[in-house]
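Hi F.,

I've been meaning to write this up properly since the lab meeting, where we talked about keeping a consistent format for the predictions we share between groups. The idea is simple: the sequence comes first, exactly as it goes in, then the structure tokens exactly as they come out, then a line or two of notes. No screenshots and no reformatting. I'm using this chain as the first example so we have something concrete to point to.
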Amino acid sequence: MLPVKLMTLRAALVLLIAVGLGCVRFDGIETEGKQLEPPVSLLDTTFAAWPDAAWWTEYQDSALSRLIEHALAENPTIELAEARLRAAQAASEFVGAARQPRLEASFDSTWQRYSENGFAPPFAGGSHDTDNRLAFDASYELDLFGRQRAALAATEAQVTATQAATQTARLGVATAVARVYFQLAQACAEHSVVEQTLKQRRHIVDLVKSRVALGIDSNVELRQAEGAIPRTQEELALLLERISLLRISLSRLTLAPPATTDTLVPQLTRIPTPILPGIIPSDLVARRPDVVAAQWRIAATFKGVESVRAEFYPSVNLSAFAGFGALGLGALLQGSSLIYGVAPTLRLPIFDADRLRGKLKFVNAQTDIAIAEYNDTLLHAMGEVVRAVTSIRTLEQRTTAQHLAQAAAESAYLLSLQRFQAGLTGYLTVLVTEGELLTEWRRAAILTARAFELDVALKGALGGGLDTPAMLANQDRNRT
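Output, unedited:
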């Protein structure tokens, strides 16, 4: 008897497929977007693992490391990204659970008056009683066409995309803190230069006063020397304001108490100068977290398309129950009240006013959007890398030229000062050469800080050490 029922079920399934395919079809609905491929190059063996996940430790600055680690632990942007990750993981668990059989225990009791002309037993007609059911109900959907598998794969891909997005948030916070830190270091270095200049100018005033007393110089030279002091003091005030504002920015970025940054004085000279490798593999951009996230969003939408396509085919649900049913509670648990049964269900859309086709068009359009966003993200990432590398190469040339200019300015200043002390030249010459030297000292501080900022920018542009092999392996399995 059972094989006959199975043959009947198989015949019904074949009939539904034949009828349904002739009515609701997804012909002509395809994805139109074309995904760009990241550039590929051979990896330099010394460069394959650069940058490191904790790239800020390369600067060997404990204060910077503490600030970044505190920011990564407390920043609300990261907390939001992690909350989204938990939500994506929960959604994936929910979809995955739908693939498993369900078993429920239930008790239903309905009080009513029974009709004298209905299906109730004759003795119950016209009476009031309760209709009771105590049973276990089981159900399971056969995933014959992969709808549930594709839906689960889509949510798993979305989880990985959200993981990468969380890394994007972490990278953004870390690079922002490092940039402001090196800006503060630059401001402190400039402040130190201007302080040194103020001391020199006060010393020059003392020299001019002695020369005036000897009749070598006049009050004109003295007023020139004295006038340079308040201008330098103004520069110091502006730099102190800038330093205070940058310390406040660091405190807000890291959510650290203001006392943590109020006395912070980073020293550029104590931080190892970043060195850019001669070869930068272009395919490192493919492990940027925002690029990886965009890749996984494409994978999620492709699986979503597969899931919707499977809705065009029959769905098969198997249900079964076993328990007790009786009028009144007294006989509910008696053997004669035993009930059980099975209820297979076959469903296939035949006419749905193009609802499924519209849904499939929508998810295909979502795929096109994901592909376009990925292409835009990839091009933007490549542009950031190219700009950072170009600026670093240019900075190397600028630094070389600045070193030569600074050496010349230092020599000119020392010669003019010696001639001034010997009475062979006026103060104006000293003032001019001193101003040129001050400019070179400040340029040196600016270029040094710029080197660190560009190093941070490049490490951020290359993904900040995101480890993606496991993600990419999962993605390859998802696409098969």
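Notes:
The longest helix spans residues 147-213.
The chain has a mean pLDDT of 82.

If this format works for you, I'll send the rest the same way.

G.
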